[in-house]
Design goal:
With 188 residues, the protein is α/β, with parallel strands linked by helices. The chain has 4 helices and 9 strands, in the order βαββαβαββαβββ.
Length: 188
């Protein structure tokens, strides 16, 4: 797959479920929405058989709701508990859910970009999108005992691996002309 650079994106991946991706994303949004226009993106990559739950269960309906390509949905409700709702509530101007088959990752991401104004910071929850996009900053939540396949594929490309959903206090985000970067604060 082709790999594009998108320096105004912070990608948060994880080695397993319930690792703190959304908690970290909300912290980053809350700390920065006054400084940057922020859009949120949650990517659910479907890698199993078309029309079947990739976990082999009855499932939540996400994988079975599409049978080809991708579906991009703007989250408009901020009063519920879904991750996309939490990102909107944290301060994102807009939040999207991209449900996508693995072989349509780039196509789905490029469609999402059509809705994003210039000079907007994107905070994206996904492992798989790193296979087609090089973000300005890639954070991996590595607090799980076993590593899921999507994380194993991209973990070596992470800029920082955290075991807690919080940036170390001696680091801060800086937006430079060339994109977002994580810098160590000067002591004193």
């Amino acid at each position: 797959m082709k790999n594009i650079e998108f320096p105004d994106m912070i990608q948060i991946g994880s080695t397993g479920r319930n690792s703190g991706k959304t908690t970290l994303a909300k912290e980053l949004i809350a700390a920065n929405y006054r400084h940057f226009s922020i859009y949120g993106l949650k990517v659910i990559t479907i890698s199993g058989a078309r029309g079947k739950c990739q976990r082999g269960e009855t499932g939540c309906g996400i994988c079975t709701s599409i049978d080809e390509g991708y579906e991009l949905i703007e989250e408009k409700n901020c009063s519920g508990s879904k991750d996309t709702m939490q990102l909107l509530r944290a301060g994102c101007k807009k939040v999207y859910l991209l449900k996508v088959f693995h072989d349509h990752l780039l196509e789905g991401f490029l469609t999402f970009l059509q809705y994003v104004p210039r000079d907007t910071l994107i905070i994206c929850e996904s492992n798989s999108i790193r296979e087609v996009v090089k973000p300005g900053l890639f954070i991996m939540m590595g607090n799980q005992k076993s590593i899921k396949k999507t994380a194993a594929t991209v973990i070596e490309q992470a800029d920082i691996i955290l075991d807690q959903p919080k940036l170390p206090e001696n680091f801060s985000l800086i937006k430079k002309k060339e994109g977002i970067c994580l810098v160590e604060k000067n002591a004193g």
